Structures are given as C-alpha cells and as structure tokens.
C-alpha cells in the first residue's frame, strides 16, 4: 500500500507553505522529512493526516481510524497517568480487553516506561512524554504512522528506544513518515525528503541523495567565498557547485548535513538571482 501527497500546494493567508510537493510512503518503510525551521515539515504531515486542506493536489491516506499521529505538541493528556493515556488512545481506536493489556505491556516495556506506568503525564520528562505519545500513536497498529519530530528533546538513549519502536512498526507493515531535526536519524530512514521553504530540494534513499549530489565540498579555513561556507564542528566547509574548487583545498566527503546545507545555499542563490 502506498500513501502520500501528489503535487500538493498549501498556503496560509496567501503565503505559500508547500509548493508542488509529491511524496510517497510505502508500507514497510520509514520516510524522514528534514528541513530547517519553517521549511514546511509540520504542514506536510498535517496535510497528510487531513488536518490541513491543500489548495491543489491530491492526498492519499487511509481513513482516520487507521492513522496514528503524533503532533508536534505533546500528544498526551497531562492530567492522566501513563496507563490511562494509553488506555484512552487504545479505546478510541477500538483496542480493548486482553489485546489492550498485551499492547500496553509490550509498548511500555519497549519505551522504557514500565516503571512510570502510574505517573501522571505532567510528571514525565519531555523525552518520556514524547515516547508515551509514540506509544499512543501506534497502540492500534495503524496502517499509516505520522510522527512530528518524535525525537526532539529526547536523550540519546531514549532516541534508540524510539527508533526501535518506529522501525518495528514499519517492519510489521505500517507506512511510517516522521519529521526530524537529527540528520543522523534521517540517514537511517528508508528514504528522506529534504524540504526548504515549502519546496522539495531532494528526495530518495541516503545513497541516492549522495550519488546525485553534484559539485565539491572542501575544508575552508578561512573560506574563499564566505556566503558558500558553513561551520562543521571545529572546521569550516565550503561548497563549489560546479566542482571548480582551488586545488590546494582539501576535498571532504559530504555527509547529509553538508548536502542539505549545500543544496539550500544553491536554492538561496537561485532565489536571489530571480529576485
Ligand atoms: N496555522 C498556520 N497559520 C499560518 N501560517 C502557518 C501555519 N502553520 C504553518 N504556517 C507557516 O507555514 C510555513 C511552514 O511552517 P511549518 O510549521 O510547516 O514548518 P516546519 O518545517 O515544521 O518548521 P519548524 O521545524 O520550525 O516547526 C511557515 O512559514 C509557517 O509560519
């Protein structure tokens, strides 16, 4: 089963948020949506779950009862305990009795929340709350799982738990799409979609994105053209879209972060040229 968006345009008050966006999510795969602040990640996911109506294009998603959605906000009720939250979400999707007992036990264990089962959601750490939200989104084994930044604010150990839950959900046959600000996470997805100002800069598997990347990235200290350079840890990197880097500069193998930044710089330059 394939879900997704086809040539979707969305705008708010006349300001475009998505422009001609086409994304496919296949059963069994995890698609990662990445992009900077305001790139359109949340809008893309909310359009897919039909919270936002597109002005143009098609949305292909299962009925609401077969979607699991973790919104960017917490996704749980502060005044309910962890167990009550999960039972409420299960009940809303028709998961009850022995099946709910079995799901609750398995999900809380997978999320490392078994010890916190009787705590109020308001007393959980931010990361624990995100994990509870993911448990609530998958309790009914949805055909389409949509997660808006599930790992933001989650510590590295809990991110491993989260990623395991997400990949197991996909392995069980769900189509999974999630936004993330962690590019190492996106590298592990089946496919990734890079958004910039409502446009898709590039999409495909990490290998495809790397193979399709043109030009050269060099180390640059100092940079030759500051507007084409960025800081990476202790180094500066610089992008040469036409591959015409001065020969004395050491070439670096770009990772996803370099590629995303380099492609955004090209788009910015194109937009500047068009303005
Ligand atoms: N409900 C709304 N009303 C008006 N404008 C909106 C609304 N939702 C999003 N926008 C605008 O649409 C654009 C895309 O926003 P969106 O939240 O989808 O980006 P994002 O990639 O999720 O960003 P972030 O990572 O900062 O949450 C932004 O310019 C934002 O201001």
From TrEMBL:
Pfam family, one: ABC_tran
SMART domains on file: AAA (SM00382)
Record's keyword terms, sorted: ATP-binding, Nucleotide-binding
GO molecular function, one term: ATP hydrolysis activity
PROSITE patterns named in the record: ABC_TRANSPORTER_1, ABC_TRANSPORTER_2
Keyword Nucleotide-binding: yes
Domain ABC transporter: 3-222
Protein name as it appears in the record: ABC transporter ATP-binding protein
